[in-house]
Amino acid sequence: MLTKALILSDTHRDIKTLSKILEKEKNYKYILHLGDHHTDLEETGFDFDDKIVYKVRGNCDFEYEEDDRIIIIDGIKIFMTHGHMYSVKTSISSLTYKAEEVGADIALFGHTHIAYNKMFKGIRYFNPGSLSRFRSYGKKRYASLIIKDNRQYSIITNEV
To answer: For FRET with 65, which of 22, 40, 41, 83 sits at 20 to 30 Å CA-CA?
Structure first.
């Protein structure tokens, strides 16, 4: 059995692109929004009753949401943050300390608008890039987390 999650970050009111992704990617159970206009999900008008949605607050979010979140999907422990509280634009060292402290398998973050995918000390550090205001590779990006049986997973970066 496969479990699929969409990983989104920094949508910044680009409802048109977000709606396009949600229409295209229908076979998912989870949506993980890493902040900066997490309320854009509601603005799309999509029905998320059969989805599990997790969000964190970004530096451009004024609605209440947690700054960090720890979730477990099919035995994979995921630490979610926007990243501004950990100064990820200059270094991921603070994020690394936090991810190790909470025992994360995956640390998801946004904020930089630049895609990032590295394994360090057994933890995958992943930033999908921005769905709206891209800074890397000239493309809007989001990702898919696919979890297989026995805690095996892959993260696929998708371009819009």
So the answer is: 22
- Output Rg (C-alpha) for the chain, integer angstroms: 14
Q: Output the domain CATH number for residue 30.
A: 3.60.21.10
Q: Which of 147, 12, 1 has the alpha carbon at shortest distance from 71?
A: 147
For tokens 């998912």, the residue is 28
> Do the beta carbons of residue 58 and residue 111 sit within 8 Å?
yes
Contact 139, 21 (CB under 8 A): no
Domain count of the fold of the chain? 1
Structural domain including 129 reads 3-159
For CA atoms 15, 90, 56, 100, give the dihedral sign.
positive
User: Could you read off the pLDDT of 14-73 as tens digits, one per residue?
Assistant: 999 999 999 999 889 999 999 999 999 999 999 999 999 999 999 999 888 899 999 999
Largest Cα–Cα distance of the chain, in whole Å? 40
